[in-house]
Amino acid sequence: MEKYLSIDETALSKGGFYTIITNKSAKGKKGAIVAILSETKAEPIIAQLIKIPKSLRDKVKEITLDIPHSMKIIVKKCFPKATQVTDRFYVQKLALEALQDIRVKHRWEAIDQ
């Protein structure tokens, strides 16, 4: 297990959601996958990750994660020494949605005038 991990929820098949934990430094090559869990709820994921020796989990310095609160709970319980970083995809998505809302609002104000 590396110092920098990513934890992400994804759908690999119809209706099947999974949580995938990867080593960021492996960049998708050998050793990238730490765990693939057929679950997205915090409790069952914590139950599995807690089986990894604490000495290995304590080496993790930073985890990039999705916005759902369950992810934060998982990281806090299983990797307490790691810094949590929100995945930039979600930050960009939220910013673009806010910008779109402002743009639409100003467009309607201009049309009304």
Break the fold down into its secondary structure elements and pairings.
Layout: E1 4-13, E2 16-23, E3 33-37, H1 42-49, H2 54-57, E4 62-65, H3 69-78, E5 83-86, H4 88-112
Parallel strand pairs: 1-4, 4-5
Antiparallel strand pairs: 1-2, 2-3
Describe the structure.
This protein has 113 residues and is α/β, with parallel strands linked by helices. 42% of the residues lie in helices and 27% in strands. It has 4 helices and 5 strands. Strands 3-2-1-4-5 form a 5-stranded mixed sheet. Helix 1 (42-49) runs parallel beside helix 3. The protein is elongated, with a radius of gyration of 18 Å.
Mean of residue pLDDT? 87
Poorly predicted runs: none
Radius of gyration: 18 Å
- How do the strands of the widest beta sheet line up side by side? 3-2-1-4-5
CATH homologous superfamily placement? Ribonuclease H-like superfamily/Ribonuclease H
Q: How many structural domains?
A: 1
From the 3D structure, determine the CATH topology. Answer: Nucleotidyltransferase, domain 5
Shape: elongated
Number of strands: 5
**Strand portion:** 25-35%
Largest sheet: 5 strands, mixed
| Element-level helix/strand string | EEEHHEHEH
Secondary structure: helix percent: 40-55%
Distance between the termini: 60 Å
The total of helices stands at 4
Structural class: alpha/beta
CATH class placement: Alpha Beta
Per CATH, which architecture? 2-Layer Sandwich
Features:
113 residues, 4 helices, five-stranded mixed β-sheet, 27% strand
Could you write a compact summary of the structure shown?
The chain is built from four helices and five strands, in the order βββααβαβα. The protein is α/β, with parallel strands linked by helices and 113 residues long.
